[in-house]
Each structure stands twice: as C-alpha cells, then as structure tokens.
C-alpha cells in the first residue's frame, strides 16, 4: 500500500470520528451516522489495501 493511500484512509477515519463526536454532542443523529459511515468506509479501504499487500 502506498503512503498516500494510508494518509487518505487515516484522514477519512479522523474526519468520521470528528463528525460522529459532533453529532453526538449536538444530538444530530444524521451527522453521527454519517461519521460512523465514513469510519467504516476507511476501515474497509484499509482492509482491502492490507489484502493487496499480503499478495505482493
């Protein structure tokens, strides 16, 4: 996996955590769910990159 991909995935995860925290603190369920979705997407991308690295 390239460093660029790692940075993008980490940034998406951090942004998702921030959205989720903001949603919780403001009782905005939509924002909280969106943050959780962003974190999940980042984790899935990371797992896919790890699989690709394993077969190199």
UniProtKB/TrEMBL annotation:
<feature type="region of interest" description="Disordered">
    <location>
        <begin position="1"/>
        <end position="56"/>
    </location>
</feature>
<feature type="compositionally biased region" description="Basic and acidic residues">
    <location>
        <begin position="16"/>
        <end position="39"/>
    </location>
</feature>
<protein>
    <submittedName>
        <fullName>CsbD family protein</fullName>
    </submittedName>
</protein>
<dbReference type="InterPro" id="IPR008462">
    <property type="entry name" value="CsbD"/>
</dbReference>
<feature type="domain" description="CsbD-like">
    <location>
        <begin position="5"/>
        <end position="56"/>
    </location>
</feature>
<dbReference type="InterPro" id="IPR036629">
    <property type="entry name" value="YjbJ_sf"/>
</dbReference>
<comment type="similarity">
    <text>Belongs to the UPF0337 (CsbD) family.</text>
</comment>
<dbReference type="Pfam" id="PF05532">
    <property type="entry name" value="CsbD"/>
</dbReference>
């Amino acid at each position: 996996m390239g460093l660029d991909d790692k940075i993008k995935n980490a940034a998406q995860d951090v942004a998702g955590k921030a959205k989720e925290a903001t949603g919780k603190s403001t009782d905005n369920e939509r924002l909280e769910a969106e943050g959780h979705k962003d974190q999940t997407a980042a984790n899935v991308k990371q797992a896919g990159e790890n699989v690709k690295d394993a077969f190199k």
